[in-house]
């Protein structure tokens, strides 16, 4: 009878996510993964099949965590305050391996090679954009913002602003908190 694995699969996916988020797909070797996860090659392949399969799990985890944070914020604060607070929240996470978005980093890194993981990252970004559009529509229904704007257009612009903010947060000498404040102020004027 095969032995039960002595590792926590969810913990391994989180650790791999952080390594991929920091270094990217190409910058993370199998040896890096084996060392970080403390797994031998045979155990790694038995658990995950391939580097690509583990990267996909890491992308899914990253997207699910981000989506859940935003949904929780919206439940607790309401749609417009959540949209206003989210930019500051994503750049103030001091435990994150990088300030830039893992999904956008993946898309930029792998899209030129037509890698299927770039399509996966793009699909997650589209889902996030849809969630933002739903929050803008809810804010309109609550009377918090004008109905003169298309929620999908607002969501596209918002996502673009947040992704740009996250890149800016990686740069030295950029006051990312001020930019996050400007995004929030802009939403208050809608």
UniProtKB/TrEMBL annotation:
One of its GO terms (molecular function) is DNA binding. Residues 6-66 form the HTH tetR-type domain. Residues 29-48 bind DNA. The keyword Phosphoprotein does not apply. InterPro entries: Homeodomain-like_sf, HTH_TetR, Tet_transcr_reg_TetR-rel_C_sf, TetR_C. Keywords: DNA-binding, Transcription, Transcription regulation. This is Transcriptional regulator, TetR family. It comes from Sulfitobacter pontiacus.
